[in-house]
Design the sequence.
């Protein structure tokens, strides 16, 4: 018989999330109650300090270790893997707060920071559950916060349109996901992913299971911006405040892919099917392989035609979702599943940190009154040498150029996928991903050509770099380089965590 946990033990398991909720409520209370008459700059600074302290306190709680357990039939599951991913999410949240310190895009400072923290709470709950009902609730907490945050950019007239598109597509995807989860509950009689996995393994891929799998994959496809569920992404990335776009492209992807991996390993391990060459079989592997192929091709080819940095990063994010979906192919092989899961999480985490850095460069341009169009970035290295150097680090890492972390991520990701299925396996998919990486290198180099080779306009003046943005860029660039030189700093803990039974 499983011992029921006390209230104190439950509080310890969810301590990091509780700390963030308290911090969000405190920021909201102070801004609405005592700081409403203060200048916006002071309000943003104090709210950012409180949010940053909340993130650090939550990270300290998660870092202390030893607070592991499984409560309420998988509603709350805390293990080494989930705590490590929470630390990554909190680092991303801290970087997002840093990018927001000197921003002027909204008057609703308390609401902005509270929603940002609540969104991160949703992402943390996503990585800490193995219950399909809690899975849906956590996804909606994160999604609803991001929908509202997307509309906070008062300086961009297209923000409302972008938020509405994001919300409408998200609502439809949530309906698909909820229908799929409801069908799975009806087929298996349980909300616990582990028990569900045992039942599905006995049933196999019958019509009911196939329908449920398809609906669930639609929901996850929207969350990770995979084709054909990507249409919201370009508008949301461009219309949202740049720090919010950075969080959407980083933390949201990390949480979604970690949750997807747990769902595939714990719940759907018996209905994986196959996407191996000449050995195609019905299951989630085949669905994800189709989505990966479409995302790789459309995301990378569409990015070539973009003339603005944020829109280029949006289509690039679709391509990177394709790379991560290629990595999930390893989860279909029982012998490679755990390692493949660790490599997908490593790639998602390092991609997220790099993406925040790239959006941070766009934020610096916006705060200086500059455009993020590629034409306007001509000769940027003469006007802002440090900013240009950091942007080069981030873009080359996204392209997978050694010795940066993007190269290590793709090396592990593709290596894990190549060991799947025996024979030719999914070599065809990995070959496509490598080919699209060459395409990605081309459009990233287009940006760097404008920055380092093209001449600046005669009227161009030195570009000021806000201190908070400079600190965030410096820390993220150092992490990208350090993890590229020593990927084991993150890979080894992930592999160690992945060898544990899911849920600890």
Sequence:
């Amino acid at each position: 018989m499983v011992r029921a946990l006390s209230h104190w033990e439950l509080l310890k398991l969810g301590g990091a999330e509780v700390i963030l909720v308290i911090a969000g409520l405190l920021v909201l209370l102070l801004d609405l109650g005592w700081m409403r008459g203060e200048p916006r700059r002071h309000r943003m600074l104090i709210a950012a300090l409180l949010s940053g302290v909340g993130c650090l306190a939550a990270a300290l709680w998660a870092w202390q270790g030893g607070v592991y357990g499984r409560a309420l039939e998988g509603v709350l599951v805390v293990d080494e893997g989930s705590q490590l991913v929470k630390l990554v999410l909190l680092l991303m949240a801290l970087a997002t707060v840093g990018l927001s310190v000197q921003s002027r895009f909204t008057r609703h400072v308390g609401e902005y920071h509270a929603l940002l923290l609540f969104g991160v709470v949703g992402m943390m709950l996503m990585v800490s559950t193995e219950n399909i009902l809690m899975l849906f609730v956590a996804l909606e907490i994160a999604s609803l916060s991001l929908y509202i945050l997307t509309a906070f950019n008062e300086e961009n007239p297209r923000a409302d349109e972008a938020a509405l598109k994001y919300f409408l597509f998200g609502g439809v995807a949530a309906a698909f996901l909820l229908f799929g989860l409801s069908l799975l509950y009806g087929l298996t009689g349980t909300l616990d992913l582990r028990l569900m996995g045992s039942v599905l393994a006995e049933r196999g891929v019958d019509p009911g299971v196939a329908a449920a799998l398809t609906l669930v994959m639609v929901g996850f496809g929207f969350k990770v911006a995979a084709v054909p569920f990507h249409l919201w992404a370009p508008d949301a990335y461009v219309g949202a405040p740049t720090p919010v776009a950075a969080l959407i492209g980083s933390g949201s992807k990390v949480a979604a892919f970690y949750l997807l991996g747990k769902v595939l390993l714990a719940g759907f391990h018996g209905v994986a099917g196959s996407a191996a060459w000449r050995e195609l079989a019905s299951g989630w592997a085949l669905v994800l392989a189709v989505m990966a192929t479409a995302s790789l091709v459309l995301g990378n080819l569409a990015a070539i035609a973009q003339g603005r940095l944020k829109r280029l990063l949006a289509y690039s994010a679709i391509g990177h979702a394709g790379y991560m979906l290629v990595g999930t192919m390893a989860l279909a092989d029982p012998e490679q599943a755990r390692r493949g899961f660790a490599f997908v999480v490593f790639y998602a985490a390092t991609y997220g940190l790099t993406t925040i850095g790239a959006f941070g460069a766009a934020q610096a341009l916006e705060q200086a009154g500059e455009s993020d169009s590629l034409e306007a970035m001509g000769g940027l290295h003469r006007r802002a040498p440090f900013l240009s150097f950091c942007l080069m680090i981030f873009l080359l890492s996204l392209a997978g150029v050694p010795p940066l972390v993007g190269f290590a991520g793709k090396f592990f990701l593709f290596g894990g996928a190549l060991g799947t299925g025996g024979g030719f396996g999914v070599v065809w998919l990995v070959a496509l991903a490598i080919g699209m990486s060459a395409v990605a290198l081309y459009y990233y180099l287009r940006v760097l050509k404008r920055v380092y080779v093209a001449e600046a306009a005669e009227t161009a003046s030195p570009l000021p770099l806000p201190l908070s943005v400079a600190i965030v860029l410096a820390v993220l660039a150092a992490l990208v380089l350090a993890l590229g030189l020593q990927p084991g700093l993150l890979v080894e803990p992930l592999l160690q965590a992945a060898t544990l039974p899911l849920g600890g």
Remarks:
- The chain is about 70% helix and 0% strand.
- Residues 500-504 have pLDDT under 50 and may be disordered.
- The two ends are 17 Å apart (CA to CA).
